[in-house]
Sequence to fold (232 residues):
Amino acid sequence: MSTPPVPPHPSLATLLRSGEPAAGPGPGPATGDTADAEDRMPPVVAAVDTGAATAPVTGGASPSFLHAARHARPAARRTPRWQWLLLAALALLLAVQVVVADRATLAARAGTRPLVAGLCAVLRCSLPPWHQPDAFTMLQRDIRPLPGTEGVLQVQASFRNDARWAQAWPQLRLSLADADGRVTGRRLLSPDDYLGGAHDPQQRLAPGQSAQVAFLLREPAATTVAYTFEFR
Fold:
């Protein structure tokens, strides 16, 4: 009986070319080439789930280019102080011009007159006098027939300015009535009427100052028994 031929064993070079592992005993210790390949592998890093994307956590400091970008932000520009001062000066100048232009209206109000008066004292501007007729108080009054002249009445009166500011001489409204209360005559007298040529339009009655006036008036009717004064 003849023995079947035994196939020849492939050489090591043939196995390496075909990509098949060489037959031999079980795995042994890693060779030097394998250890070097493992050392060259990059380290595995853990991943953290942020809910949107998985980002590697390296545990080190942030990159230097992030610090450079953070420091490269432009600082907010501040308005120079002189510009604020110039704006405030222009606003103050505009307010002064408005007050001076409308000073007559503002001077007629008790709340704004002190401000306007102080401003005009500095700027040397004219200011209309205060006008408050009800602040004049009648102190004495007397009307009687002029002796020796029929139908002529002699009027004498004294009054005082009780306002906070100086006032011009007021107008006097004189009303005459008979015994039944019927008005028999009425006349509005200006300062020129009861002061005559002695009246100075620029003259003012200071606060608390009193004045006396006397003038003649033609009697409208012989039945006149009552009279009243009003300031206008």
In short: The mean pLDDT is 76.
